[in-house]
Amino acid sequence: MKCYRRCSIRYRKISQVSADGAYDTKACHQVLKKKGIKPTIPPRSNAGFWENGHPRNEAVRALKSGHLEEWKRAVGYHQRSLSETGMYRYKKLLSPQLALRDYDAQVGEALANVKARTKL
């Protein structure tokens, strides 16, 4: 029991998912709705309206009226790029390859990699 308390991970509830237009499908929206997650997915360029009252229709309306950028700002869609940058840095940090060319920089990169791995 002692180890269980120490090793247990507490999960946060996901309140919003930001994804690109490739995820603008009814299946994705249904899964997110079922889990109580707000989707912030811009509609595809040829998107049509869904059933009356669907939250996605607001994004389609913005797309058709040429105000998609304003919609993205209003719903916080641009936070997606911050998470993508964070994941990119995480993957680069834990990569088995060194990206830098200068020897001293490679030493620093390798040490940062080792330090990050020991924290996991």
From TrEMBL:
Q: Which GO terms describe its molecular function?
A: DNA binding; transposase activity
The GO annotation for biological process reads: DNA transposition
Transposase IS4-like domain: residues covered: 13-111
Q: What is this protein called?
A: Transposase DDE domain protein
Which species is this UniProt entry from? Grimontia marina
